[in-house]
């Protein structure tokens, strides 16, 4: 029996989403043992949040560029921008999870009032959007990479892609605000 990925996009989306979210929550909740991965020097670990802020900013730019290219119907440029965005997201996620497995989530160093009234709500929305984006991103990426550009108009790619890009942008922007509160403001 021949398995055609194009015919299994929803199933593959579900499998990849569950595996990715299990990895993320496993890292954040401490289910992945610290000794399971080699430890980088402290200077490298300390640089990860700053590198990730740059990666996030680049991802914001590439997502916006991809949206502009799609609106201009420059679909080859759109595809390249969105694949670059996905690659940047993967780099961000690998670095973030690496640091979290080794050191746990960052502690908020600011005042308790800011923590409760500003930081936690922003972080919660950022995390919620990031979780919701995972299946949307897999879905639109699988549609886009398993079909020629001319066949995408027969799918939900554009509709789901608009939602995914919007949520992804807000999540990255909020992630940078969280970064600023953790490492710049306080």
From TrEMBL:
Gene Ontology biological-process annotations: respiratory electron transport chain
Taxonomy, superkingdom: Archaea
Record's keyword terms, sorted: Membrane, Transmembrane, Transmembrane helix
Alphabetized GO MF terms: cytochrome-c oxidase activity
Pfam families documented for this protein: DUF420 (PF04238)
TM region positions: 12-32, 44-69, 81-98, 118-142, 163-185
Cellular component GO terms held in the UniProt record: membrane
InterPro entries with a match to the protein in the record: Cyt_c_oxidase_su3_a-hlx, DUF420
Protein's name according to its UniProt entry: DUF420 domain-containing protein
């Amino acid at each position: 029996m021949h398995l055609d990925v194009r015919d299994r996009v929803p199933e593959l989306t579900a499998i990849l989403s569950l595996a990715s979210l299990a990895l993320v929550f496993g890292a954040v909740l401490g289910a992945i043992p610290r000794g399971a991965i080699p430890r980088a020097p402290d200077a490298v670990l300390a640089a990860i949040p700053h590198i990730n802020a740059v990666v996030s900013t680049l991802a914001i730019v590439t997502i916006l560029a991809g949206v502009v290219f799609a609106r201009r119907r420059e679909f080859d440029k759109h595809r390249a921008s969105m694949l670059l965005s996905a690659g940047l997201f993967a780099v961000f996620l690998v670095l973030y999870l690496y640091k979290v497995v080794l050191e746990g989530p960052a502690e908020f160093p600011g005042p308790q009032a800011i923590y409760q009234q500003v930081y936690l709500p922003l972080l919660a929305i950022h995390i919620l959007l990031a979780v919701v984006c995972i299946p949307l991103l897999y879905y639109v990426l699988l549609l886009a990479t398993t079909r020629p550009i001319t066949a995408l108009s027969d799918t939900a790619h554009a509709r789901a892609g608009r939602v995914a890009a919007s949520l992804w942008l807000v999540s990255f922007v909020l992630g940078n605000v969280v970064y600023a509160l953790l490492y710049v403001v306080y």
